[in-house]
From TrEMBL, chains A, B:
It comes from Paenibacillus cremeus. Belongs to the glycosyl hydrolase 4 family. This is Alpha-glucosidase/alpha-galactosidase. Gene3D superfamilies: AglA-like glucosidase. Keywords: Carbohydrate metabolism, Cobalt, Glycosidase, Hydrolase, Iron, Manganese, Metal-binding, NAD, Nickel. Its cofactor is Mn(2+); NAD(+).
Length: 452, 452
């Protein structure tokens, strides 16, 4: 018999995300009888995802039920778990903000788009605190680092941020030709800013294998024609960061350095991006990002076909095995006291990542069981890495978190003034003025007391 | 009867500094019988300063004796207090480094010149640890913040950093037309990065008086023709920083923001400097700095005349009253247990400035008496100020301190990459290469394992 829980997905219109969760839930007998509330403001996509969920569940003969709503507060009623995957305004708003950034001199845009996101996060978190205060909030939409820290400071919720980036060590193992079952890894830091503190192959330190690869094979790897269309983990930039600071940056870390104070120099223009991330200039270049959007769109088309064509099976796209997504296994660990170790983003209580405030959400390993989540503390990160990468990243995050928490225009402006591309106060102020004037930022402008 | 102490001045060739200390010592009966060792590597200037000191002492009929040496280790023998005021390579090396910075795209140079300074500081500190480990090291040469933090991390010495900047509140009082004897002020932060946390006139909060001045009189002040040839404390930049972050920046703070992550936007070129600091563009512009050097040179000429012309009196230039310089009064407080409150830079033990590491040297009020120096803790600085100014400044200082402590090239490079004017990795690396190739950096290049 399973333990039935009520899971609410905010931003459920993302077919791939929602179907992944539903599939994981369907193949997890421990959670049989559970109910999923799909919530999104896009009715068309919501209806589609509901059909998808029901098809998947039927194909898998699972005991999971579904409902949908566009009303967030209704959705939260009696929820045990709330997954927040919502992207404010979707890809369109992201791209429009990026374009505005470029107009004001910021190639590929700035981190301003984090503010509408964090504004929504706070709204959701406050609703949860009122409607289902004992629920776990599982945050997967970005910015996980700043957003979770902000919500932790402003509410009493149980907050857990999750991300896939930490699996990047497997890509290193793959390129080095190591058998993955013998590879172990530990990482810690902040989300999208994690470092490989321990890397072993068959129990032995595997860093020397990486060093040898850099010496003997890296140039050939970077030169080869069938280079992955985006490459972060084994890019020239990742290796250069390793050589600068002494530990490998994992997952999103080597790409996130973009205009975050450390690593901006890999991203000054497309040519520089191509030099450091291969022919497409990495995931975040105009070329890499377009590929990503195309791929996403192809995937959505595939899903749509599978749902609408009765002759196709949804399980061909979502095979009936637990994915690498940690969400459902963690829920199972929590409600059924099945202890497991996961990669989590949780408040830094007791100084899990040493040298940073307790009210910051850090990324680390976490032991999850019926009593909750306990972060696993490691040795302090090396002094060099802390001074060169962790402090600068933390300092920028603090400015962003506090700008949103206080609704303070000058801190928001400071976030921009810290961007390496900003050339003058006038530039930053002009950009902010136009950004706030967009009707989609109307609520945000009120928070920051901007009166156009 | 006074308590005789042995005071060693490193870099004693600075006539103005040394004579100021000697004068203060001569007028302080509590330290009668003391001996001052003047140490410098410039024999000519050293001889001159010795004559100056003896003239002053004779005119004041003081019981203070002097000796000179170019041998630092001899100078330190049995010292009770070591004053470090040395500037490596003097103004010439500073100007040459600045020129090199400008060649590589950094208007008015960068903070690289802090490294030769910190390298010397460490040498001196290690000598003291060996030769006179119980002495107090009083650091007045810059960078006081990074340098004292570095020495504190690397030695067990009693370290005290001193600076005049905190008196800046008197300039505010003066411009506001307040009678100085009724004005009190508290500041805290890091050296050259302190903020006016408490400002009172006749016991009442005086910030409203400042706000009124800004509303009604500031524009006229900034526009007036007889504007001070450099102005930091009441400059447009200082007021703008106050408006951004909520507290007044004091003393060197509104000028030091130059290329330190916060405030770079006031310093992009001479025109911008003039807009924010008046017609000469402030103390650090090419115009303001030349005035400063000229003034210094005039002062030295005056002193030289007074020493060499028997018909003149040195006490006309250094009148026989205790100056505002805290060094001698603090020595008196320490050795004669005369309790006083001073503005000090000391290790942040117990978190005097809250939210920053204990191994950082912070600026605060300190109670000084026969037992030593106890920092006075204040309320935490406002969250906005911390996020917008203190964290970024701290993060940059950490990178500089740790770069020097570890002798790490990549952290040194990171300090440059954090400079807002850096446009590419190539630019920063090229600049560093040429800087290290200067013969005056030969020892430093070894520390950083640079092999040209």
């Amino acid at each position: 018999m399973g333990t039935s829980v009520k899971i609410c997905i905010i931003g459920a219109g993302s077919a791939q995300f929602s179907a992944g969760i539903v599939r994981d839930l369907c193949v997890n007998p421990g959670l049989a009888g559970s109910h999923v509330v799909l919530m999104d403001i896009d009715e068309r996509r919501l209806e589609f995802v509901l059909q998808l969920a029901e098809r998947l569940s039927a194909e898998l003969q699972a005991n999971v039920s579904f409902s949908k709503t566009t009303d967030r507060q209704k959705a939260l009623k009696d929820a045990d778990f709330v997954l927040n995957t919502a992207q404010v305004g979707g890809h369109q708003w992201s791209e429009d903000q990026r374009k505005l950034g470029e107009k004001h001199g910021y190639y590929r845009g700035t981190k301003l788009h984090n503010f509408p996101q964090m504004h929504l996060f706070l709204d959701v978190a406050r609703d949860i605190e009122r409607i289902c205060p004992n629920a776990w909030l599982i945050q997967s939409a970005n910015p996980v680092f700043e957003g979770c820290s902000l919500m932790h400071r402003e509410t009493k919720l149980n907050i857990l941020g999750l991300c896939h980036g930490h699996y990047g060590y497997l890509e290193i193992a793959n390129v080095l030709g190591l058998e993955p079952q013998y590879v172990t890894a530990k990482t810690q830091g902040f989300n999208h800013w994690i470092w490989l503190t321990d890397f072993r192959y068959k129990g032995e330190d595997a860093y020397p294998l990486l060093d040898e690869w850099i010496q003997t094979k890296a140039e050939a790897y970077w030169a080869k024609a069938d280079f992955e269309f985006w490459d972060n983990q084994m890019s020239r930039a990742a290796i250069h960061l390793y050589q600068m600071f002494g530990l490998m940056p994992i997952g999103d870390t080597p790409r996130t350095c973009e205009n975050l104070g450390v690593g901006w120099w890999y991203h000054t223009d497309l040519t520089e991006k191509q030099r450091w991330y291969g022919s497409l200039g990495g995931f975040d270049s105009e070329l890499g990002w377009q590929k990503y959007l195309d791929r996403l769109s192809d995937k959505v088309d595939d899903i749509e076909r599978a749902v609408t064509d009765a002759s196709l099976k949804v399980t061909d796209i979502f095979p009936p095995v637990q994915s690498k997504e940690q969400i459902v296994p963690i829920i199972n660990s929590l409600v059924n006291n099945v202890e497991g170790i996961y990669q989590v983003n949780i408040p830094n209580r007791g100084g899990i990542v040493k040298g940073f405030p307790e009210n910051l959400v850090v990324e680390c390993q976490g032991v999850v069981n019926g009593s909750g989540i306990r972060g696993v503390s490691q040795e302090p990160l090396p002094a060099k890495l802390v001074a060169g990468t962790m402090n600068p990243r933390w300092s920028q995050a603090e400015c962003m978190i506090e700008a949103m928490r206080l609704g303070d225009y000058h801190l928001l402006l400071s976030c921009l003034l810290m961007d390496q591309r900003t050339r003058s106060l006038t530039q930053a102020e002009g950009y902010l003025r136009e950004w706030f004037a967009d009707p989609r930022n109307e609520q945000l402008a009120k928070v920051f007391r901007i009166h156009p």
